[in-house]
């Protein structure tokens, strides 16, 4: 009995010794991205394919784009994040601050919509968004209102007290809405004077509340306070999944392009694997799964979307032809001044 016990013990030790090298080959890399629906879609349906194919564990570091950028800057010499998802405005800042490295040349880059490829391929759009008009379908039906069609509907007196606007100083949706309306009033990304000077006589009287982000919208729609607000198709879809009576309308003047970009983080511990992950996330199969799992609109022209999503959006190729691309370099250069003016003049 003693001999058999000894043999069994030795066999167990041997088994552990054999298993250890195989286990140690499993690497872990980290990706920074928004939490919530995006994280859930990627962790449940997209990242497992990459993990299985490459014997690697991909761990999501959740946070807003600003949170992720702050982590990158705090650890820029020895970053813990290998690949970062950032909203395009924040990505422009990240690139200027030198925390991203150029993407390896790859056939997948040629499959992206042209506007999704950043200058010098320092990064690329992984999810396409469009800030357009979200509206309360229940309220519109009760009032007998036709769906909105124009950015200038925000200034239509019939919506007085039913417009909710995200703060342009803290929300990309709010900033996009302001810039789109500013453009209709004769301004540009370099000249926001028309938007600021005419706001009080156009959109301002209709606004019931300025909110710092979109978190409060679901509640305000259900209470009937919110009738019209800037929002993306993906965000509208998330609200619809919760049973909130909302719909998305594409403005006739064109929606404002909102990309979620990815970049490989400079000085990361495994640049080769990070580049491989970036190429995978930009591929048609990965983006098709992201669309099916979380209504993530693809930037890869060969990716597919579920029929319901396709029906809701319409022809994506037609939509992107009319989309307005903002000048983030100009915006970021003056953002602090605009934020201060917005807070003091618009939300006073």
From TrEMBL:
One example of a Gene Ontology biological process annotation? polyamine transport
| Pfam family of the protein (one) | SBP_bac_8
Supply the alphabetized keyword list. Answer: Signal
Signal sequence coordinates: 1-24
Name a GO molecular-function annotation: polyamine binding
The reply to whether Secreted figures as a keyword in the UniProt entry is no
Matching entries from SUPFAM superfamilies are given as: Periplasmic binding protein-like II (SSF53850)
The terms describing its cellular component in GO are:
outer membrane-bounded periplasmic space
Q: Does the keyword Magnesium apply?
A: no
User: PANTHER family annotated for this entry?
Assistant: ABC TRANSPORTER SUBSTRATE-BINDING PROTEIN (PTHR30006:SF2), THIAMINE-BINDING PERIPLASMIC PROTEIN-RELATED (PTHR30006)
Q: This chain belongs to which protein, by name?
A: Extracellular solute-binding protein
Q: What is the lineage of its organism?
A: Bacteria, Pseudomonadati, Pseudomonadota, Betaproteobacteria, Burkholderiales
């Amino acid at each position: 009995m003693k001999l058999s016990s000894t043999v069994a013990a030795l066999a167990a030790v041997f088994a552990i010794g054999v298993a250890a090298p195989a286990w140690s080959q499993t690497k872990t890399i980290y990706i920074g991205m928004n939490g919530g629906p995006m994280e859930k879609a990627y962790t449940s349906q997209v990242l497992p394919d990459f993990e299985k194919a490459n014997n690697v564990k991909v761990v999501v570091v959740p946070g807003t784009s600003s949170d992720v950028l702050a982590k990158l800057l705090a650890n820029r010499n020895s970053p813990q994040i290998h690949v970062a998802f950032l909203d395009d405005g924040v990505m422009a800042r990240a690139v200027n601050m030198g925390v991203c490295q150029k993407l390896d040349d790859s056939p997948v880059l040629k499959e992206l919509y042209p506007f999704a490829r950043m200058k010098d391929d320092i990064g690329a759009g992984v999810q396409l968004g469009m800030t357009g008009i979200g509206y309360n379908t229940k309220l519109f039906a009760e009032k007998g209102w036709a769906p909105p069609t124009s950015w200038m509907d925000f200034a239509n007196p019939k919506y007085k007290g039913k417009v909710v606007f995200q703060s342009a100083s803290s929300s990309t949706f709010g900033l996009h809405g302001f810039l789109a309306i500013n453009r209709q009033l004769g301004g540009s990304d370099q000249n926001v004077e028309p938007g600021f000077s005419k706001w009080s006589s156009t959109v301002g009287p209709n606004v019931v509340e300025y909110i710092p982000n979109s978190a409060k919208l679901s509640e305000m729609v259900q209470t009937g306070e919110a009738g019209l607000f800037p929002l993306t198709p993906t965000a509208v879809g998330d609200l619809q999944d919760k049973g909130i009576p909302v719909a998305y309308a594409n403005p006739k003047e064109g929606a404002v392009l909102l990309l979620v970009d990815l970049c490989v983080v400079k000085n990361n511990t495994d640049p080769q694997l990070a580049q491989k992950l970036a190429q995978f996330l930009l591929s048609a199969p990965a983006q098709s799964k992201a669309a099916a799992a979380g209504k993530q609109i693809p930037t890869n022209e060969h990716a597919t979307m579920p029929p319901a999503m396709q029906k809701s959006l319409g022809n994506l190729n037609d939509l992107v032809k009319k989309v307005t691309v903002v000048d983030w370099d100009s915006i970021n250069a003056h953002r602090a001044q605009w934020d201060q003016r917005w807070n003091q003049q618009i939300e006073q």
